[in-house]
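Title: Comparing notes on inverse folding

I've been comparing how different people in this forum approach sequence design from structure. To keep things fair, I'm posting one structure and asking everyone to reply with a full sequence. Here's the target:
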């Protein structure tokens, strides 16, 4: 077979790789390393194992091109708008909101004086299930105008999942941290470290070691992913961690976190949350006009506690969604045009536990 067509095709592929790496902003040393890889491929282009090497290097360069080495969210800091967005999404949680507003105030001052971003706070929201830990991170993303990526730690069984594998391994890819950065497309996103206390016992020590590096501002500006094999700057990332309790977290990790307790909600707080947040949201999701359902205010204690006390609002949210579904069925089947929930009929709308 004439080797000329093979060589021509290889040269085209190599030119495409060069163009890809030249078209993106990467650290000069990393760009030089990748161009050296392409040059080595060129020397192999007349040999039989070019295809295998090409696939490995092409896969690597594709990931290098996805990492946001320089791109960041540039958004004017409006503390009033940030507070309004946080209040719109979450009732209470004043300590958490105040901490975020403090950081944004410092960031605004530093930006005014061209001093750079400064250290982002590393907040750890600690509380029982359903108290709003995870959803607060998404509300914060909306408030700050920064994209968010979530890394679930529940059942995480290896530190390699966070740090990636060497590209010498077949089908290796970056770890969760770099992939989260790539998903957001900017170097100053919010990364949610969800349920960091729920990793497997066997891998706990190794994972805590990686967490120390992630959360330490003196180390995370040069986080080393084994696949990328070049330091990635995470110093502008705003990490938000969540945990059900801190008993399983290493002392070194706790030293680098700002733990904030998420208190259980009282019945009065749940009533406010239901009326201002959950009920309107459920109606909107169902495409239902608010005038269709009328709820006697005296019924809310029964709706809030169909079984007993619950620290969070997840059960309450399910109960409200269930009521809305039952009303929707009555409306669609023509059994009613409007529904009033009263002490006499409320049991038929509550879940049958």
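Reply #1:
Here's my take.
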């Amino acid at each position: 077979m004439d080797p000329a067509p093979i060589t021509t095709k290889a040269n085209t592929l190599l030119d495409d790789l060069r163009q890809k790496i030249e078209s993106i902003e990467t650290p000069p040393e990393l760009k030089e390393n990748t161009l050296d890889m392409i040059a080595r491929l060129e020397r192999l282009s007349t040999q039989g194992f070019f295809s295998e090497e090409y696939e490995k290097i092409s896969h690597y360069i594709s990931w290098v091109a996805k990492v946001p080495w320089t791109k960041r969210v540039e958004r004017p800091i409006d503390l009033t708008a940030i507070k309004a967005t946080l209040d719109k999404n979450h009732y209470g949680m004043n300590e958490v909101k105040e901490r975020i507003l403090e950081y944004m105030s410092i960031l605004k001052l530093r930006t005014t004086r061209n001093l750079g971003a400064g250290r982002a706070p590393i907040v750890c929201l600690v509380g029982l299930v359903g108290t709003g830990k995870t959803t607060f991170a998404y509300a914060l993303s909306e408030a700050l105008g920064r994209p968010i990526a979530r890394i679930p730690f529940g059942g995480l069984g290896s530190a390699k999942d966070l740090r990636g594998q060497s590209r010498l391994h077949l089908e290796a890819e970056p770890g969760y941290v770099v992939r989260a950065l790539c998903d957001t497309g900017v170097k100053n996103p919010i990364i949610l470290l969800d349920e960091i206390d729920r990793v497997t016992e066997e891998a706990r020590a190794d994972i805590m070691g990686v967490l120390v590096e992630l959360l330490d501002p003196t180390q995370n500006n040069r986080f080393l992913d084994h696949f990328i094999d070049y330091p990635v700057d995470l110093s502008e990332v705003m990490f938000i961690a969540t945990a059900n309790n801190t008993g399983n977290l290493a002392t070194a990790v706790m030293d680098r976190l700002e733990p904030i307790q998420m208190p259980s909600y009282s019945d009065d707080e749940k009533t406010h949350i239901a009326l201002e947040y959950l009920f309107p949201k459920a109606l909107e999701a169902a495409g239902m006009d608010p005038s269709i359902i009328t709820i006697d205010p005296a019924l809310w204690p029964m709706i809030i506690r169909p079984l007993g006390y619950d620290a969070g609002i997840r059960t309450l949210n399910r109960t409200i969604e269930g009521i809305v579904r039952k009303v929707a069925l009555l409306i669609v089947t023509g059994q009613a045009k409007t529904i009033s929930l009263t002490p006499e009929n409320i049991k038929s709308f509550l879940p049958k536990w």
